[in-house]
Amino acid sequence: MRRLKYIGLWVLLLLNININVYAQKPNNLIKANDHLILLLDLNAPEATLDSLLKTAGIENPAIKLIKKGNYQSLKKLGWNILPLPGNRLRIDRSLADIGAKNGVSFQVTSGLPQTSRPGYPGEVLYGANNFARITVRELANGLTRFFMPGKQDAKRIILSGNFNNWSTLQGQMLKTDSGWIKDVRLEPGVYAYKYIINGYWIHDTNNNLKENDGYGGSNSVYYRYNFNFKLPGYSSAHRVVVTGSFNKWNAGELIMNRVTDGWELKLYLHDGIHQYHFLVDGRTVTDPENKIRAGNQNSVLNLGEIVNFRLGGYEHAQHVYVAGDFNKWKPDELAMKKAGGIWVLPYTFAAGNYQYKFIVDGNWITDPTNPHLARGGNEINSFISVKPNHTFHLKGYGNAKNVKLSGSFNDWSPDGYTMEHASDEWVISLRLKPGKYLYKFIVDGNWIIDPGNQLWEQNQFHTGNSVLWMD
After folding, report:
1. Which tens digit of pLDDT belongs to each residue from 364-402?
2. CATH second-level architecture of 227-303?
3. Domain ranges for the chain
4. What is the pLDDT of residues 273-315, one digit of tens each?
5. Entry pTM
6. Which residues contact 84 (CB under 8 A, 6 or more apart)?
7. CB 200 within 8 A of CB 216
8. Stretch (H or E) spanning 190
9. Measuring CA to CA, which of 260, 366, 413, 466 is 20 to 30 A from 283?
10. H helices then E strands: how many in the chain?
11. CA-to-CA distance for 210 and 222, rounded, in angstroms?
């Protein structure tokens, strides 16, 4: 994955401007104790780091030494240093020390973009379908029906898409008196598809949503919905729009439909925490059926799975936080609360794999109750999988001290994912996207293929890799 370039060329200009930081831009700017805060990804190119530090007023930074863990040049200039998991570094300094006039601080971060290969749409925050004629619809039994009208002279039509790994054998459609149909089971999300008519690939000409197929043509795109925005009443309104953090508060995009008892709009909405409100003929209206609010104007949706972080044994600690790759390892953002001698924090996650740690009075520790560990940069972190869709099993090896899983899903890390010994086997669950994966187990340092999986292929070391296909 390509790393995003640091946002930074305008930071010093903003330091001299009185600016309010909006909630829909939490990853770029924050108010925090009158300090300038920079989060540095030490895996970034030297030129990127050099440019960012100079923008923050640090002349001639010793980049090579900083990347190796020597921070003396920054400390001499008065910067506070805090190494973070994932080979990241947080540095901060009082705005008064660097001559800023306003009590506002800025956090500059880098992140990883979502990428996808042609034919396999990347993750999106939201989506709505756009058909000239509806040819894909949901059935009462939970299946999704694809319909190709006409084509009565065709001998065979195949429905192919990322949901069946673009198969040319599966997906044969049934001929009817008005066209061809195929019912498939889809989870909420975004899908690409085409039809194969007598051997020729064509996109759905009735679907206005398309994307590049990587071969000079187009794939049709379909969203399987999972959410319905509703606003009761307002029967005399002319136009009602829903807008939120998920669509960057675009006030002219998601126009709601008039229904008997009000207004509604169905769409796909990715798991996560979203703020939103309605615009009724231009007037802001919060959702009357949602009591969770952010300020006076925005309603809040928490979609996904709630994970309850718990840490016992530190009843005398003053401050306990949880941080992970899900919040860019910000150490002072997610404060845990003490309840009955145990520190707790519920947090809503989208489906995926995550690493995290607890910060107890400034000390970073792994979760003592979680047997699953993974490496992030130079650090070993606790590991969780939210809504996992595959469990790896290795039977036997009861005398092994340590068993790990490694493969193409984690760049063949020698530290792998630490598995848990349960009954007579070692197990770990992951959330994996559709596609092909190669993997091995590491038993007390020895790499072995999965004895319970007959699918394997040879590698350059002539030791073989196990193969997993996720549909």
Report:
1. 999 999 999 999 888 999 999 999 999 999 999 999 999
2. Sandwich (2.60)
3. 11-108, 126-224, 227-303, 388-471
4. 899 999 999 999 999 999 988 888 899 998 888 999 999 999 9
5. 0.57
6. 39, 90, 323, 329, 331
7. no
8. strand 189-197
9. 260
10. 4, 40
11. 9
